[in-house]
Amino acid sequence: MSVEVTVAIVxxxxxxxxxxxxxxxxxxxxxxxxxxxxxxxxxxxGSVELVRKKFPKVRLIANKQNSMxxxxxxxxxxxxxxxxxxxxxxxxxLMNNAVSPMIxxxxxHPKAAAVSTRxxxxxxxxxxxxxxxxxxxxxxxxxxxxxRFVKNKKLLSWWRYxxxxxxxxxxxxxxxxxxxxxxxxxxxxVDYYDTNMDLFFLENDLCLKIKDAGYFVYHLGNVTVRHLRxxxxxxFKPSEMYKFYEHDMLYYYKKHFGFFWWLFLVLxxxxxxxxxxxxxxx
Length: 282
Description:
By secondary structure, this protein is α/β, with parallel strands linked by helices. 41% of the residues lie in helices and 20% in strands. It has 11 helices and 9 strands. Strands 1, 2, 3, 4, 5, 6, 7, 8 and 9 form a 9-stranded mixed β-sheet that branches. Helix 2 links the parallel strand 2 and strand 3. Helix 9 packs antiparallel against helix 10. It is globular.
């Protein structure tokens, strides 16, 4: 039987979550032929041994260095021979067969390139995934130090689809790649993730490339997975995470908005740099 879905997971120092994620996949994915790939980014915490011992069917790539998320996923996605790829992370647990309805949706909609699902945490609260494409002005009001003093709730509400409980099917501009099923043909056409970014703005850039290629992305609110947020990124210090964020953020806006807006954000976010510098030295 030919493989219908390639599951791509990039792991960094979350062996317990990885075990639960893999167990849920092999338990709940039904009526779909699939292969699971795990790329471990030099965790050195028993994650590799866990996969080899408990999940021998998983195709494992054990990196000697941390290649970060974008390159890690591309390493798997570029080898996919199946018509669909499921991009996910160790913090996700399937509660039922979420993959089958996602495939059916993509088959029914030729111009749909990717779909995400509703995500809930351990107590059942839904995550406000999906958004419109960000802009430099949105970035200032959302992420800079100045946003603490200057508010634009109307703009941010519009950007984040505020008021939507993520419980319906909706075409969105940016879908969450925490649990995203995509057509392999389209991923290949848009050249997967941009590896000039490490962790942040990956889904924004990917969805924008999908749009530019003439396709759409959707959110399926009738399909739910559990997502335990922030467990991998908690392995980094806040100042380290900010460095990743700033690098990826500035690259994204220079790529899509040009030099002027890049320079504008560089100047605006100097205050953020100072904040994290003094927070680190305390």
